[in-house]
Amino acid sequence: MAEAKWYVVHTYSGYENKVKANIEKTIENNKHLAEQILEVRVPLEDVVEVKNGVKRTVQKKLFPGYVLINMEMNDDTWYVVRNTRGVTGFVGPGSKPIPLTDAEMKPLGIKSENITVDFAEGDSIAVVAGVWKDTVGIVQRMDYGKQTATINVELFGRETPVEISFAEVRKL
Question: Please, what are the domains in the chain?
Fold first, then answer.
């Protein structure tokens, strides 16, 4: 299997969310694609607008007319994305899509590096930093995308799940 990378897809202006929804619906209907097309994003940024003297924060598209897709590039995935209604093509020279580099993805807040940790679900860990410092718990769930582990801690006499960053824990 090929490695999944981030690609940029050009869409008709204003069709970004529709393209995202159509690709996600296609993935939902074709289960084999779920392992090849991992994520579809329309990058947004918070912007403060002042209208009639009232400030409010709204979300605007960071790149109007573009959608980011994390996928394994092969004939099937290329065909599905390229033939989605509203897509005009991949960004790259000619018809060959070029994946984004780590340097291009960093300002977007997308982490590409795979972090490795020395613990897994079911292991006992100690929290060494943050609010839950000196707490010991058993890993219930791992989220490598957010780089967090969920452990149960006793709070007010009850077991409560808490999400802790990988950087704040060590294996016992």
Answer: 5-108 (3.30.70.940), 124-171 (2.30.30.30)
| Angle, helices 75-82/16-29, rounded to nearest 10 degrees | 140
Phi, psi of 40 (to 5 degrees): -125, 130
The pair of structure tokens assigned to 27 is 């993935």
* Total number of residues shown for the chain: 172
Three-state secondary structure readout of the chain: CCCCEEEEEEECCCCHHHHHHHHHHHHHHCHHHHHCEEEEECCEEEEEEEECCEEEEEEEECCCCEEEEEECCCHHHHHHHHCCCCEEEECCCCCCCCCCCHHHHHHHCCCCCCCCCCCCCCCEEEECCCCCCCCEEEEEEEECCCCEEEEEEEECCEEEEEEEEHHHEEEC
Tens digit of each residue's pLDDT (9 = 90 or more) over 109-129: 665 555 677 888 888 888 888
pTM (2 d.p.): 0.61
